[in-house]
Amino acid sequence: MPPKEDWEKCDVKKRSELFLAVKLSTDFPISRNTALDENDIALLKTYGQGPYAKELKKTDSDIKDIQKRINEKIGVKESDTGLAPPNLWDIPADKQRMQEEQPLQVARCTKIIQAGENEDSKYIINVKQIAKFVVALGDRVSPTDIEEGMRVGVDRNKYQIQIPLPPKIDPSVTMMQVEEKPDVTYSDVGGCKEQIEKLREVVELPLLQPERFVSLGIDPPKGVLLYGPPGTGKTLCARAVANRTDATFIRVIGSELVQKYVGEGARMVRELFEMARTKKACIIFFDEVDAIGGARYDDGAGGDNEVQRTMLELINQLDGFDPRGNIKVLMATNR
């Protein structure tokens, strides 16, 4: 360091050069800001604190405020019932439309009778508590829209099929569908590298790249059984698989299929797979499947017989005559 007199005589530029020379001559390194690498960013994202967390949070808040003000300007109000405000109702027009449109009867198409080249196909429908009829299609329905076993809407005069209907599914089964993707990725699962590779090969690749299996001429496996002690990452791996694919994810807890009434558990399993067949691709995850997946036996106990019926229906859906389509099944058990 120069003497005090020389230091005071130096100008600002000279002082900065002297200070830098003294700084570089010391053993302490100059502290500099270093960029975050991928591991640092991944760690911050795990705790919800990414490098742009504050800016993104502020932007989301501004978007919500602007959307709220727009809705107030145009008179849109949130409603739990899904109905428009009463001041927007047009009851006379609704009554006139109800008189013009004839109500339909719910039926089930039991069989399709294929016709010749110049003739239209016929359909055998079963109208509950009335009779069976051989009918044709309406003007607004295509033959490709109707399949055997499907629920349809028919008019009350000629019983022609006017509209295909979705399958009737228990609301408790519909609620098992997971709407939002889990935020778990494969990097969040530690110590299961081999298991994750097998899961990706069995579940993820057939859904994302099915042409590979077609070119090889092999059928991919239809499901995976995850077993191990509690806390080893079985459910975590299933959530990571759901995050990687665009397939519908259905999570079922084994105890939910154990019902009090006879046949209820088996019916829920059937409706569960019916709902899965309506999706383009679907993953069904049975957690704690040992609640219904015990060994086969018959000791005469009524409650155990009901569990057996549920298990047999599940086995029938997994390896029965009905095609499963693009449905993957994951099961997890502690046994």
The level 1 CATH classification of the domain at 171-333 is Alpha Beta
Task: Kindly state the number of beta strands.
Answer: 10
CATH topology of the domain at 171-333, what is it called? Rossmann fold
Query: Beta fraction of the residues?
Result: 15-25%
Which descriptor suits the 3D outline? globular
Secondary-structure element series: HHHHHEEEEEHEHHEHEHEHE
User: Which second-level CATH architecture of the domain at 171-333 applies?
Assistant: 3-Layer(aba) Sandwich
- Alpha carbon gap, first and last residue: 74 Å
Tally of contiguous helical segments: 11
CATH superfamily of the domain at 171-333: P-loop containing nucleotide triphosphate hydrolases
Radius of gyration: 32 Å
- The spatial strand order of the largest sheet comes to 3-2-1-4-5
- Helix content percent band: 25-40%
Unreliable residue stretches: 22-28
Which helices and strands, and how do they pair?
Layout: H1 4-9, H2 12-25, H3 38-46, H4 53-74, H5 91-100, E1 105-113, E2 122-127, E3 131-135, E4 151-154, E5 161-165, H6 171-174, E6 177-178, H7 193-208, H8 210-216, E7 223-227, H9 234-244, E8 248-253, H10 264-277, E9 282-287, H11 302-318, E10 327-333
Parallel strand pairs: 7-10, 8-9, 9-10
Antiparallel strand pairs: 1-2, 1-4, 2-3, 4-5, 6-8
Helix pairs in contact: 7-8, 10-11
Give a description of the structure.
With 335 residues, the protein is α/β, with parallel strands linked by helices. Among the domains are: 102-165, Beta Barrel (OB fold (Dihydrolipoamide Acetyltransferase, E2P)), CATH 2.40.50; 171-333, Rossmann fold (3-Layer(aba) Sandwich), CATH 3.40.50.300. The protein has helices at 4-9, 12-25, 38-46, 53-74, 91-100, 171-174, 193-208, 210-216, 234-244, 264-277, 302-318, and strands at residues 105-113, 122-127, 131-135, 151-154, 161-165, 177-178, 223-227, 248-253, 282-287, 327-333. The strands form two sheets. A five-stranded antiparallel sheet has the order 3-2-1-4-5, with no helix packed on it. Strands 6-8-9-10-7 form a five-stranded mixed sheet, with helices on one face. This is 1628_t:CDS:1. InterPro entries: 26S_Proteasome_ATPase, AAA+_ATPase, ATPase_AAA_core, NA-bd_OB-fold, OB_PRS7, P-loop_NTPase. Keywords: ATP-binding, Cytoplasm, Nucleotide-binding, Proteasome. GO terms for molecular function: ATP binding; ATP hydrolysis activity. Belongs to the AAA ATPase family.
